[in-house]
């Protein structure tokens, strides 16, 4: 279901899909994907509303996607042996993400 959330970063109300809920002492933080901006953000539970009927049917401007069969890699440096090897990683590092964005542009 699509909701409307207030993005502090963009300073406006945006359509979003809720992906996760994190409970905290002062309330809940919702992990959201903004469907018109292709961004992820966290919003407080009081900054979310149900989207009105006709607006929910407007197509998204952004789509979530993943690269098929592409695994993150990282550079492992061994200072003792003075070697560097590329190996598997759990997450993409910031340099790889920036390089990929430049390739897309």
UniProtKB/TrEMBL annotation:
Cited Gene3D superfamilies: 2.30.30.140, 2.40.50.90
Protein name as it appears in the record: RNA helicase
EC number(s) recorded for this UniProt protein: 3.6.4.13
Residue stretches making up the Tudor domain: 3-68
SUPFAM superfamilies, alphabetized: Tudor/PWWP/MBT
Catalysis: reaction(s): ATP + H2O = ADP + phosphate + H(+)
Domain of life: Eukaryota
One of the record's GO molecular function terms: ATP binding
One GO biological process term: germ-line stem cell division
Pfam families to which the protein is assigned, alphabetical: TUDOR (PF00567)
Keywords: ATP-binding, Helicase, Hydrolase, Nucleotide-binding, Repeat
Listed InterPro entries: SNase_OB-fold_sf, Tudor
Species whose genome carries this gene: Falcunculus frontatus
Name of the coding gene: Tdrd12
């Amino acid at each position: 279901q699509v909701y409307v959330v207030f993005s502090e970063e963009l300073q406006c109300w945006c359509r979003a899909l809720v992906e996760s809920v994190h409970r905290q002492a002062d309330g809940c933080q919702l992990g959201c994907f903004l469907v018109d901006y292709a961004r992820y953000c966290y919003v407080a539970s009081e900054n979310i509303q149900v989207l009105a009927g006709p607006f929910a049917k407007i197509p998204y401007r952004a789509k979530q996607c993943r690269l098929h069969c592409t695994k993150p890699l990282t550079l492992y440096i061994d200072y003792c042996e003075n070697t560097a090897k590329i190996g598997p990683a759990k997450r993409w590092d910031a340099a790889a993400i920036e390089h990929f964005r430049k390739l897309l542009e």
